[in-house]
Design brief:
With about 180 residues, the protein is an alpha+beta fold. The chain is built from seven helices and four strands. The protein has two domains: about 90 residues, Arc Repressor Mutant, subunit A; about 80 residues, 3-Layer(aba) Sandwich (Glutaredoxin). It is about 40% helix and about 10% strand.
């Protein structure tokens, strides 16, 4: 059931207040995922969240509320899993995720300068997503590749022994 109990014939989506002022989230994708995984039980939570995030690029609050309602999995349990695993995000993310290692080896080999060069190049603050939705930048404690320090990861690809100039060039290839 949605907030006001209304569902359009076109599919599931949430309403606020009187009339039809639909939220921005398109819940049709969530509906399709639930249909594919049906019946959904609490043991399916991680794969369900992974599929939802893959479909939306993040986990919209409205979608989580509707999925909780439809599956009977408490929203508190969903948020417990979402906040425990770093793979999940409740905020919109860029098409590309840049992770800059700030571990000891990277730190002493210039990770701060590399990060500053990237942040300047993409015009965003650490932890943020660019206004055009291309990049999300994250500082991370360790990428486990100390021998390549300083290291940056773009999506699933590692780049090591970086200088600020090399880092800017890498980011330009993803723009």
């Amino acid at each position: 059931m949605t907030e006001t109990g209304k569902v359009h014939s076109a599919g599931m989506h949430v309403h606020r207040g009187e009339g039809c002022e639909c939220l921005a989230a398109d819940l049709a994708r969530a509906e399709a995922i639930l249909a594919e995984l049906s019946p959904v039980d609490p043991g399916d939570l991680i794969p369900l969240l992974q599929r939802l995030q893959e479909a939306y690029g993040y986990l919209p609050k409205e979608v989580l509320a509707e999925v909780s309602e439809r599956t009977g999995i408490p929203l508190s349990r969903m948020y417990g899993v979402i906040t425990f695993y770093t793979q999940f995000s409740t905020e919109p993310r860029g098409r590309h995720t840049i992770r800059c290692c700030t571990g000891t080896a990277c730190h002493v080999r210039g990770a701060k300068d590399v990060a500053e060069a990237i942040l300047h190049e993409i015009d965003v603050e650490a932890g943020g997503t660019t206004s055009d939705g291309r990049f999300t930048f994250e500082n991370v404690a360790c990428l486990g590749t100390c021998f390549l320090a300083p290291v940056v990861m773009v999506d699933e690809e590692y780049f090591g022994q970086l200088t600020p100039a090399k880092a800017r060039a890498i980011v330009k290839n993803y723009a």
